[in-house]
Amino acid sequence: MAEPRPTIRRRRLAATLVRLREAAGKSPEEAADRIGCHRSKISRIENARLGMSLGELRDLLMFYEVEDPRFVEDLLSLARRGGERGWTRNLGATLPSYADHIDYEQTADYIRSYQPLLIAGLFQTPDYARTLYRANPEMLSSKSVDVFVDTRMHRQEVLERDEPPRICVIEGEAALRSQVGGKEVMGPQLDHLLDLAERPSIEIQVLPLGTGAHVGLIGAFVMFGFPTPAFSDVVCIEHVTGTLHMETPEETRSYTLAFDTLRSAALGPAASLDLIRQVRREL
């Protein structure tokens, strides 16, 4: 029987411990000696296959000379909740990268999304999402479509929290004008965008078709930011067979620059809503 997929929290704690150990110039054997265990246990901890006690974690952090009390508490919180898995637990066996994407989405406090051709997933209506999934040749049954649509709608519950994440989305004008499902689908979808834009936590900008050459021609991407220093930003790029996640500072800096450049090129929020209304009237 295959081991269960490690949770996002446990994987991020594991990656952080590896980084801290290497920065401190310590070997896995030295870390094992510090907490009185076999080297294989350190290996399993650092591969996110095994949790650890809070006492062991505190001891290792002291050994690695981690002194920032807030950072230490963040890591202890990750350890306490390392085994938790939300409603995505049933997706992992068949859709591990999709489940990871949702786990990032559910734990982020700042989401930036650039969508040149499609309405952002968190903003899609059920009919819009259903039309997209039906266009996928791998969706072999209406039951499969229903599962994916239900999952997408479940994801959107993050918008209804008492403290929802801050969300900045740049939609390409092509996404507004694309006739996904015809006017019967696009009309309500554009109305939904306008309604969402009224929320203080959501900002929508539109990149006009006439912008010309711009960095967004690289394609769509989503960036997740997290409320603790222990979580670095994550960039997600969806492709035909899954989702690519990038977390190194070099990668995330490049996409932060790209997003900021696109925000400068896009219409401001008020002008963007005017354009959405115009496209809606033209339907």
What are the defining features of this structure?
Endonuclease, Chain A, 2 domains, 434 Repressor (Amino-terminal Domain), 283 residues, 6-stranded mixed sheet, alpha/beta, elongated
Q: Any idea of the CATH topology of the largest domain?
A: Endonuclease, Chain A
What percent of the residues sit in helical stretches (DSSP H or I)?
40-55%
Principal-axis shape equals elongated
Beta content comes to: 5-15%
Q: Please give the alpha-carbon distance between the first and last residues.
A: 54 Å
CATH architecture designation of the largest domain: 2-Layer Sandwich
Order of helices and strands: HHHHHHEHHEHHEEEEHH
> What class would the helix/strand composition place it in?
alpha/beta
CATH class of the largest domain: Alpha Beta
Low-confidence regions: none
The major β-sheet equals:
6 strands, mixed
Q: Report the total helices.
A: 12
The overall number of domains is 2
Mean pLDDT across every amino acid position: 88
